[in-house]
Structure formats: C-alpha cells, structure tokens
Amino acid sequence: MKREILTTSDGSTTIHLPDWNEQYHSKNGSINETYHVFIKNGLREVLEDNVSILEIGFGTGLNCFITYLEAKKEIDYVGVEAYPVTADEVEKMNFISVLNAEKEQEAFHKIHQVSWEEKHQISSNFSLIKRKQFFEDITDENAFNLIYFDAFGARVQPQLWTEEIFLKMFTALKENGILVTYSAKGSVRRAMQAVGFTVERLPGPPGKREMLRARKITTQNS
User: Fold this and answer.
1) How far are the Cα atoms of 48, 161, 170 from residue 185, in angstroms, in the given order?
2) How does pLDDT run across 101-155, given as a tens digit for each residue?
3) 196 vs 39: CA distance, rounded Å
4) Judging by beta carbons within 10 Å of its beta carbon (0-12, 13-18, 19+), is residue 22 exposed, middle or buried?
5) Taking the model in full, what pTM does it have?
6) At the fourth CATH level, which superfamily is domain 31-221?
7) pLDDT band at 220 (very low <50, low <70, confident <90, very high)
8) What is each CA distance from 165 to 49, 196, 217, in whole angstroms?
9) Which residue from 75, 66, 77, 54 is spatially nearest to 30, judged by alpha carbons?
10) What letter would DSSP give residue 94?
C-alpha cells in the first residue's frame, strides 16, 4: 500500500495512506490531537502515582514520545503495533522540531531503536515495551490504568472497533481504568457500553466535534 508523508495543520507530520484516504494522525494537527485526546483527557485524569499505559496502534511513536515528555509520574508504557513503521519514515517525522524538544532527541530515537518484545528503561521514570501483535491477540488482564485507543478509523478497519476488541480492552484495564479515543461514532460508543464501559462524550480535538472516554467501573454492580 502506498504511503506518503503529510504535513498537518499544526505543522507536524504524519503518514498518509492515499488508497484508504487515512492517516496515522489527524490532518488537523498530529500534535494537537495527541495532547487533546490522550494527554489532557487521558493521562491527566489518572490519579495513581505509577501509571501503566497500553497504546493500541504505536505507529509513529508520537503518543509515546509526548507521554514521555509529559511524564510527572512513574510510567510503564506498552505499545502494540502489528505493522511497525520503517526507520526511514521515522526520520521524516518532524516531531522533535515542532515540539521544541531537541534536548530529548536521544530519547525519541531510543524509543524507536530499542528491540521489540523486551522492557527498556527510556529514563528513570519511563519504561517501554513495544509488542508486535495483532490487536485481537491481546490477552492482558487487569494490567493497565490507561489505554490510548489509536487504531485506524472504523471506516477503513471496522474489525478493530467491535465488542470483541473492546471486551479485550475492558479486561486489560484495572478497576477505574480509563480508555480514550479520538472516535465518537455511535457504533463505537455502543460497543463500549455493551461490554461494560461507562462512556462519556467529550469535546473533540481540532477538526472533530466530539471524542470518547470510557471507564471500567465494576464495583457499583457487585
């Protein structure tokens, strides 16, 4: 499948798939989307001092890198990706310059260069495991405080936005865990609710009216 480098509205780059008319991040701003969806409405909502994060769709590593930059607590980060981006594509991403994060350039490259399937210490308070895995093969249980659900959209990969997948996400989260995603489709919200999530609509990132945040709250039903 053809892949192109696209510059988004906030000046940051992403990978565009013209055959699908889909990209790894929003055309309305890769960095803006990450901060709004995953940091503001995800990471900053977690109260625990030690935060375990699962990212569904590691992709360009942008969400991971910004989480690293924003880390005020101990973070254990697991990124799942079935089709890793190439080193050449990573080199074409301009995240470091747009974020004015030149002092963290070594960490950005380390995030991409460390081996898969092993735990690596990126800094004293940030560890990373990258797993090359299909989302339907995830079997984690009660392991994460927070999930970044950043798969390609339901328009092009509807199989990734089903009750089956969200049940795996529900199982993977700890009690009171949070899942955040850029999507606000009614079918996605209903699939989340069907497996037990408490779901709220929130104002979306630039270019989107709404997004979804789901919580695993089971004690009220026990």
Assistant:
1) 29, 10, 18
2) 999 999 999 999 999 999 999 999 999 999 999 999 999 999 999 999 999 999 9
3) 24
4) middle
5) 0.96
6) Vaccinia Virus protein VP39 (3.40.50.150)
7) low
8) 28, 13, 18
9) 66
10) -
